[in-house]
Amino acid sequence: MGDGHSERSDGLSDLHALLERLYPIHRSMTGDGLRETLAVLDDVIPIDITEVQSGTRVGDWTVPPEWKIREAWIEGPGGDRVVDLADSNLHVVANSSAIDASMPLSELEPHLHSIESMPEAIPYRTAYFSDDWGFCLADRTRRRLEDGEYRVYIDADHDETGSLTLGESVIDGRTADEIVLYSHTCHPSLANDNLSGIVVATEAMRRLSELPQQRFGVRLVLGPATIGSITWLAMDPRRHQRVHAGLTLVSLGDTGDLCYKRSFSGDRRIDRVAGRTVAEFGGSTIDYYPFGYDERQFNAPGVRLPFGSLMRSRHGSYPEYHTSADDPDFVSSASLAEAVDAVVKIVQRLQTGRILQGSGTIGEPQLGRRGLYESVQGDAFPKDLHYAVLWVLTYADGEHDIDDVVIDSGLDRGVVERAVGLLSGTDLLVEPG
User: Fold this and answer.
1) In this predicted structure, what is the pLDDT of residue 4?
2) SS3 at position 237
3) What is the DSSP secondary-structure string of 277-309?
4) Average pLDDT in the 347-371 region?
5) What is the pLDDT of residue 45?
6) Which are the contacts of 59, defined by CB distance < 8 A and separation ≥ 6?
7) CATH 3.50.30.90 occupies which residues in the chain?
8) Measured in Å, how far apart are the chain's first and last C-alpha atoms?
9) Given 54, 233, 252, 392, which is the most exposed site by the fewest CB atoms within 10 A?
10) What are the C-alpha distances in Å from 49 to residues 128, 169, 198, 225, 286?
């Protein structure tokens, strides 16, 4: 597939250009960086903004104060700045408390973060939900620090009257049920994790909005990791019932193969549709595990929504993860474009697949009194058609479609469709609402 800028055509360039435009913005869990990011995306698709007041209780969490940072640096014994937020958004630990102090290197060291195995890279670290502070720097720079007195300055505050910012874009469907896409917005200047997810989600929504109205609405939610999805879920618990399927979109710009992570149950409609689609792109499917990104919140006890996750390389599995090496040059334009194609195809298959919904009879229904047994027995292929009728009735739970029956039964599609046609003329197969 190749990586970097060299393989971009005009269409691919648009995706990468949007990523590069977003890259310099200083994002965190809260603050103006999130608002600026959503304002940029609003140039591509309509974005509605919701501000949730700091201090609001959401599930077992509380929306934190809004972090506002203006300046941060360290001056060495000679007066030179050895670390400066103006040079990299990663230089300050996210959500750091304010400080203006002088201290010896020995006292400063516990507040410094670097990666010995990657001496040129600046790590990304956070101090969410704590009163700590710190700086991140290249290990090469850290090793050159001399003993002496250092001036440490962070001009920041935590505004209790602030808010957490969520962005949403909605494509209305013919029904109230929705397919939900979620991408986290809180990482500063990290291209794969997760500007790639934001860019892919935005472009997928733009393409889907150009299609005729579909059965399900499509909703993109953009918010900080963990606290953002928890807040969105808590805002309107009734929305849980309207989620037909969901996908978190993360780390989609590296050159690894596409990977789909199943929902908690592992057998929801999104799992089957996304798994088959990703396989067509040469990707793989993995089981759910309780670590990662916001799919954890959507699959948590008490929620258990049909939410999977689409990614490439898993979090923490590549050296550039959460470091300054995860820059725009690390992201492949072709990978972004392929991920958009996969998301659009998954959503369209969820929209267009014929979902099988039974009438809710207890046990196997009586075919004879509906004239179905005679119809099946009189067919030229009674065994196959009879099996197909039973397969369709077994799968008529609102979670399966005709493709599931064809694949799992091994029967010819034509026979399955004839069975569906027979059942559709009775009260045993209804059109899902």
Assistant:
1) 36
2) helix
3) HHHHTT-EEE---S-SSTHHHHTSTTT--SEEE
4) 86
5) 97
6) 230, 233, 234
7) 68-159
8) 42
9) 54
10) 23, 9, 16, 17, 34
pLDDT, position 312: 98
Structure tokens at 426: 């009775």
How many CB atoms are located within 10 Å of the residue 364 CB?
A: 9
CB atoms within 10 A of CB 91: 21
Instruction: Give the pLDDT mean for 74-84.
Output: 97
Question: 15 — phi, psi (to 5°)?
Answer: -65, -45
Encode pLDDT of 144-200 as tens digits. Answer: 999 999 999 999 999 999 999 999 999 999 999 999 999 999 999 999 999 999 999
Mean confidence (pLDDT) of the chain: 93
CATH for 68-159, options being 3.40.630.30, 3.10.129.10, 3.50.30.90, 3.40.30.10: 3.50.30.90
The answer as to CATH 2.40.110.10 being correct for domain 10-64+162-352 is: no
Residue spans in the chain of domains classed CATH 3.40.630.10 = 10-64+162-352
pTM of the full structure: 0.92
